[in-house]
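Standup notes, structure subgroup. Blocker cleared on the ribose-5-phosphate input:
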Amino acid sequence: MSLLVPTPSLVPAGTAVMPPMARQATSIDTIEGAKRKAAFQAVEEHFSNDMQFVGIGSGSTIIYGVEAIKAYLTKNPPKNDRYIFFIPTGFQSRKVIEQAGLMPMAFDSLPEKVMLDVAFDGADEVDDELNCIKGGGACLFQEKLVATRAKKFVCIADYRKNQARLMTKWPSIPIEVAPISHATVMRQLKLLGSVNPVLREHTLAKTGPVQTDQGFYIIDAPFKPLLTAKDVAEGKDGSGVDGVWDVHTLAHKIKAISGVLEVGLFFGPTGIEVQAAGGQGGQKPVACYFGNRDGSVVVTRWPKEA
Ligand SMILES: O=C[C@H](O)[C@H](O)[C@H](O)COP(=O)(O)O
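Run returned:
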């Protein structure tokens, strides 16, 4: 049976509004099963009951991540009734944590020196170097804050998200902007080579632009497929000539536009190195778990195994 990808019941209506081209007809059972399988494997390999602070991302896939954490903790409760605190990346994420009976802690309540033991999240597309596009559900800013604060970031997705380069199947880069600046940011994005950036609106157009948890807007900016660091090392030009960019250069260019709060490109170092790098790109995952149609899970790790 071929149906539209469902809005998960835990996602408040109007929150997870995907860019138009992402709404593809697909088999619900297969995709949801693939995501769930990937989530359980990711949690099995990266979560344990002696952790103290755990980041929880947003979207439909992370719901299975929380289900897997809950299942693990039911079998293996933390010793001495100790709490594990789960740091959400937005409203939906907090609801998912609460509904699982886990203990949320606001990002800005974290003790100053604390690093999260791990942060789990989904992605819209992941390339060969584990750079990610995120923000399909309009949650990229808090996701980047939380990922940047984690000792390791682990991504959970399905096979559709696994591409050699970003912008292969996913149509656009989500960019969170201050409402007053949206028109000027769109003009600047066109100058960078984005052919038709659009202000994301609710499906019901009369309700206006989608607003993020910060009350900001999202612009979805299409670009040509983005070059990886390997492409650049091999001599390909990612400086924007003919609208061809590499991930790092484009992310920095967009972030520098006045009015941009955050760009939905996660790149840069992994783990604790991120702090030294100032957290510019968020961080990319140390591993991404892609659930497949046949029930298998492909794991890509960074740095790549030899
Ligand atoms: O803004 C939303 C987040 O970046 C999500 O993690 C991303 O869109 C993936 O969502 P889903 O798991 O629903 O595909």
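Discussed briefly. Residues 1-18, 20-25 have pLDDT under 50 and may be disordered.
Next: hand off to the docking folks.
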